[in-house]
Amino acid sequence: MTTHDNNRLVPRVVVLLNGSRRTQLLLDEAAHLAKREGAELVGLFVEDTELLRAASLPFGGEIGLISGNLRPVAPETLERRLRQQAERLQALLAATADRHALRWRLEINRDRLEAAALAATMADDLLVLYRAGWHHPTEGGFASHALSRMLGAARCRVMMLGEQAPLGAHPILVFQASDEAGQRAMNEALRLALITNQELLVLLPRGSEQDERTRAVIEAWGARQGRRPRCIPFEGKDIATLIALLRRERAGALVLPRGHALLRGVAGERLLEASDTALIVVP
After folding, report:
1. Domains of the chain
2. Residue 67 CB: number of other CB atoms within 10 A?
3. pTM for this one?
4. What are 213-220's contacts with CB under 8 Å, separation 24+?
């Protein structure tokens, strides 16, 4: 079992901002992560070209939050709102970074949302976004198709925060795996457990819980890095069983490799929708 990725530093925590009511909570969690990593805090605000193009169409408009009525929005009005939103986000970002004594900057890109997020990140970055309510963009999340494309193409680690309490207050969970992608996820989970000073829980697939050799190898792997993991048998194959386990253990985060079966199709949608736990996807 390899450990060479454990000490790989995160130079930048890039937080995807959209001006929702959850922006301050998202910034606070990203700032805590950047502080632990010794990283720069980068806010990314995307002026969505699809939204701008829709506003320029003759039938383009917005739906009133209370009335539910469609009302026209002139392109220049939308441009002005975007500038004002960027100014508010810059002020929030500056205040948050100052409280944590962090280096910071705000990047403003005009593109499709997921394309801008991917273009703005490098391989060693951590991209942070709010995913609870991800199927309701007005709540601060992102549409499922945009999120799926982002996860499938991201070069860096992606952290999708849910409604759970701060990451640093709860255990980090990961599945035991012997393949290269799975071991990268295990190494990342161990690294996070170390920098947050939290317990590492390793979920053993069916049959492995009886294999004392497997358990001993995992415990020795963690102990060499200063964090002896606790191994938990996991026999369930459905999302409901996994979510029940995450809640029972009060998990702070679940770390998965990008190609994991739990992230595919309907299973992935159910995991994103039903779990309050932060999800970290490792390429």
Report:
1. 12-161 (3.40.50.620), 167-282 (3.40.50.620)
2. 8
3. 0.84
4. 214/176, 217/1, 218/1, 218/176
